[in-house]
Design brief:
Layout lengths: L5 H10 L5 E7 L11 E7 L3 H13 L4 E4 L12 E7 L7 E4 L2 E4 L5 H10 L2 E2 L11 H7 L2 E2 L2 E2 L4 E8 L4 E5 H4 L13 E9 L1 E2 L2 H11 L29
Parallel strand pairs: 2-4, 3-4
Antiparallel strand pairs: 1-2, 5-6, 6-12, 7-13, 8-9, 10-11, 10-12
Length: 242
């Protein structure tokens, strides 16, 4: 809960040097795939990574809880709204770069877009993400996967901004990846940029793998409702994706 008015908080954040967009009492429904959600007290979209750090440091200094909003895939937001600061990261952390066979993607980058970028570079290992909606940051938090493939298996390290505004680098072992889980599900803060290691592959191999992973829409699926990707985990003993 923000002490005082949200408008005063927005002015204070501006004075701290924040350059991105700021909205008070802004409905979150337009930013989720299910089109559900009441207002955020303060909704901020940082201009870039440095702007995100300004917002996190400001929130820590004023004892204001902050939450992260990526692509809003399968995110249920209460009609009562969300107190505190909500940080929308798609624009701030959307960059994708590579170093040899390594892909460095900002947490706000689209997972399918990162998979396509890797393919254009002749790199394999992330093609299963071509059919998984959402951002790379969200994929890391839940260790997104398809059948036997999981993003955690490709990770070398993850840059992470903790709740105190400190940037840390965690190794893959530090991330504690499990089936649809990671330490980030209970570790307050935000994934900034995972570094994934890929392997060389032919375009034909990527095309076959990515085509296989793309979900096949059923003719009976209603198209007039907000979309929802798969949002349940397989029970123990059942093959993921089966």
């Amino acid at each position: 809960m923000i002490a005082g008015s949200a408008r005063d908080a927005a002015d204070s954040l501006r004075m701290a040097g924040f350059r991105g967009s700021l909205l008070t009492d802004s409905p979150l429904a337009p930013y989720t795939t299910w089109r559900i959600g009441g207002p955020a007290e303060l909704l901020a979209a940082p201009a870039d990574r440095a702007d995100l750090l300004v917002a996190a440091e400001w929130a820590a200094a004023h004892a204001i809880r902050w939450r992260v909003l990526g692509n809003g895939s399968n995110l249920l937001v209460s009609d009562a709204g969300v107190s505190g600061l909500v940080l929308r990261l798609r624009d701030a952390l959307g960059d994708v770069a590579h170093e040899g066979r390594r892909i460095i993607a900002g947490a706000g980058a689209s997972f399918p877009a990162v998979a396509r970028r890797a393919a254009a570079l002749g790199l394999s290992g992330l093609e299963f993400g071509a059919g998984i909606p959402g951002t790379i940051g969200g994929a890391i938090v839940m260790n997104a996967g398809w059948h036997e493939f999981e993003i955690g298996a490709t990770v070398e390290s993850v840059e992470f901004l903790d709740a105190a505004g400190v940037v840390r680098t965690l190794t893959r072992d530090d991330c504690l990846f499990g089936y649809r889980s990671s330490r980030f599900r209970s570790y307050a803060g935000v994934v900034l940029a995972p570094r994934s290691r890929s392997r060389r592959a032919t375009c034909g191999r990527f095309a076959r793998a990515s085509s296989a992973s793309l979900p096949r829409a059923r003719p009976t699926s209603p198209r007039s409702f907000p979309p929802a990707a798969r949002c349940f985990s397989s029970p123990p003993g059942i093959l993921p994706g089966g």
